Amino acid sequence: MAEPILLRNVGVPDSHTIEVYMQRGGYQALPKALKEYEPAALVDLVKRSGLRGRGGAGFPAGVKWSFLPKGVYPRYLVCNADEGEPGTFKDRVLIEHDPHGLIEGIIISCYACEVNTAFIYIRGEYEFGARRLEQAVQEAYAHGFLGKNILGSGFNLDLIVHRGAGAYICGEETGLLTSLEGDRGHPKLKPPFPASEGLYRKPTVINNVETLFNVPFIVERGAEWYTSMGTEKSPGLKLFCISGHVNKPGVYELPLATPLRTLIYDYAGGPLEGKPIKAIIPGGSSTPMITPENLDVPLDYESLAAIGTMLGSGAVIVIGEGTCIVRTVERLAEFYRHESCGKCIPCREGTDWLYKILHRIEHGAGREEDLPLLLDICSNIGGKSFCPLGDAALGPVRSSIAHFRDEYLQHIRDKRCPYQD
To answer: Is the preceding peptide bond at 396 cis, omega within 30 degrees of 0?
Structure first.
C-alpha cells in the first residue's frame, strides 16, 4: 500500500491534536459535506460507495442509515468503540492517534442522518483513548466543529464520550444501548431494530469506529474512488490487526481482497522463528479457524464465507506449529464463558459446559465421547441464544474439531497434553 489513507496520521507527532490534524488536511471534508450535500444526498453517496460496517457484521452503512423512519425525531447516532474481542485492536489505534478523524466522520454522518446528539461508547479498558477523545471533543467545540450552527450551516450537534465498564456484551448493539441508558448491559430482543427504536426508544444509528472513520474520505474523494479498491461486493480499504506467531504484529491498511498470504508474509514479517503455520483465525476469535491450505484466500467478506469462515473485524490471529490447539480453544472458551451475560440458558449453561469439557480434555481427563458431546452442545447453542455471543463461542470449537480431531484424540488417549513436556 503506497499511500496510507486511514493510517495517514499514525506515527505523526501530536497527531491527536486539532492543530496537527488540520495541518494535515483534516476538517476539509466537513465543510464540503455541509455546503455541497443535502442529508439524503450524503446517504446516497455512502450507499454508492458500498462501505460496509467494519465492526464484524459487514452490513452496508448507507443502507443502515436509510432505515431511519422519515420524520421521526429526535434520533441518535452511537459510535461503537467497545472493541472487546480477543485479537481485535484496530479501532484503538485510530482512537489514540487520530481522534479528530473519527470525530469528523461522526459529524458528517450525523448531518447525513439528521442527528443532533451523538455518543461515542468506548470500552472501559481504553482509558488513554477515552481521555484523548474527550480532549479532542473539547477542541472540536472550541473550533466550531461541534455545537450550535456548525460552520454557519444551521446544523447543530452535541457529542458525548461515554465510558463503558468493560463487558464484551456491550459491543453488541442492543446491549450497548441498554448500558448507555444506565442499565445493566443486557441485549434486547430484535425486532424492533435500533434504526426504528433504539436509544431512549428513538431511531438510532450504531456504527463502528472504523466505519465512521471512512466517511470523510468518501466525501473528499468520491464513491467511485472507494469502489475502485477491493471487489464489487467488498469495496474499499480495511484495517487488519494481526497478532500471534508473526514477526511484526500490528495494524495494517490494505484494500479488501488482499490475499491472506500477503498480509502475513509481506506485511507482518512471516511466521515467528520461521516455524510453519498451524492454523489461522481470520476475523477475530469468534470466527472459525482455517489451515495453511487457505493462505491464498482473498481477505473479503465473500471469499472467506466461501471457505466456511468470516472476515469479522479483520483481526487475524496466526497460530504456529508447536502450539496446542486444545489449550488455545480452552482459553477462548473460558473467555466466552466469563463474558456471557447470563440472560439466556443456551449461552449461560452452554458456554460453561464447553469450557469444562475442553478443560478436562486438556488436562488428561477427557473421554472419546467428549467430541460428539462438544458438537452436540454447540448445536444447542447455535441459533438458540438471545444474542450473537452464544454463536461467537462456537466458531473456535467446531472448526478446531473439524481440522484437528486427531490432536483432540491424542489428548484423550494419552491422558495428557502432548505439548506440556
So the answer is: no
**pTM for the full predicted model:** 0.94
21 contact partners, CB below 8 Å, separation of at least 6: 9, 15, 27, 98, 100, 101
Q: Three cell numbers at 207?
A: 456504527
Residues whose CB falls within 8 Å of the CB of residue 8, separated by 6 or more in sequence, listed in order: 24
Please count the residues of the chain. Answer: 421
Helix H or strand E segment including 77: strand 76-81
- Give the whole-angstrom CA distance, residue 357 versus residue 366: 7
- What is the full per-residue pLDDT of the chain (421 aa) written as tens digits? 568 999 999 999 999 999 999 999 999 999 999 999 999 999 999 999 999 999 878 899 999 999 999 999 999 999 999 998 999 999 999 999 999 999 999 999 999 999 999 999 999 999 999 999 999 999 999 999 999 999 999 999 999 999 998 899 999 999 999 999 999 999 998 999 999 999 999 999 999 999 999 999 999 999 999 999 999 999 999 999 999 999 999 999 999 999 999 999 999 999 999 899 999 999 999 999 999 999 999 999 999 999 999 999 999 999 999 999 999 999 999 999 999 999 999 999 999 999 999 999 999 999 999 999 999 999 999 999 999 899 999 999 999 999 999 999 999 999 999 998 6
Task: Confirm if 164 and 75 have CB atoms less than 8 A apart.
Answer: no
Measured CA to CA, the distance from residue 410 to residue 149 in angstroms comes to 68
Nearest to 256 by CA among 213, 316, 311: 311
- Structure-derived torsion over alpha carbons of residues 173, 37, 231, 264, reported in degrees to the nearest 10: -60
- Quick one: how many helices (H) and strands (E) in the chain? 17, 8
11 is written with which cell numbers? Answer: 506515527
Q: Which letter does DSSP use for residue 289 in this model?
A: P
Helix-, strand-, coil-residue percentages of the chain, each rounded to 5:
45, 15, 40
The closest of 82, 155, 56 to 114, measured between CA atoms, is 155
Beta bridge partners of 161: 120
State the Cα–Cα distance between residues 100 and 20, nearest whole angstrom. Answer: 10
The DSSP output letter for 417 is: -
Residues 6+ apart with CB under 8 A from 402: none
